[in-house]
Design a protein that fits this description.
A hairpin with a 2-residue loop joins β5 and β6. The protein is α+β, with helices and mostly antiparallel strands and about 150 residues long. The radius of gyration is 15 Å and the shape is globular. About 30% of the residues lie in helices and about 30% in strands.
């Protein structure tokens, strides 16, 4: 289910890989009317894809079935996102730190995980995670003016 209004979008979809791809396209299509710069939409695509893939891979691991909800609203000079799922909580109910990979390492030596959270942390502001009433709630903002890496 997807809906859009003049300031944002609301999408609810199953927490599986195929639905995530469709939802990501719906997010980008739903934001087109805001006429955001291409750079901002690229950041949105990277961040939302990383977040949704983490939900499917970790929160809904072990074939757990569930839904994902995305809300995005334009407020002042930022897009504010809230992503909610009812899957497994984050370890220790906190966000992973996320570390950049050593680009000099051999591909087979690259560690699993962490780089996505590094990207999310670098490309967003106001990043917060809470576990509330058996739901994971991730919120963040993305500047619509000019992206400035941390």
């Amino acid at each position: 289910m997807a809906s859009a209004n003049r300031n944002g979008i609301h999408i609810v979809f199953p927490g599986d890989n195929l639905a995530v791809r469709k939802a990501l396209r719906s997010v980008l299509d739903g934001l087109k009317h805001l006429e955001l710069p291409g750079e901002v939409l690229s950041v949105v695509e990277i961040v939302v894809a990383e977040c949704l893939n983490n939900v499917v891979e970790h929160a809904y691991a072990d074939d757990t079935q569930g839904m994902i909800e995305i809300n995005a609203r334009l407020r002042e000079n930022a897009l504010w996102f809230r992503i909610v799922d009812d899957g497994f909580p984050m370890p220790a109910e906190t966000l992973p730190d996320g570390h950049p990979h050593d680009l000099d390492a051999m591909q087979d030596d690259l560690p699993e995980g962490g780089f996505g959270w590094f990207l999310i942390r670098q490309l967003t502001n106001d990043l917060q995670y809470v576990r509330d009433e058996d739901q994971n709630r991730l919120t963040f903002s993305i500047s619509t003016v000019e992206h400035k890496p941390h």
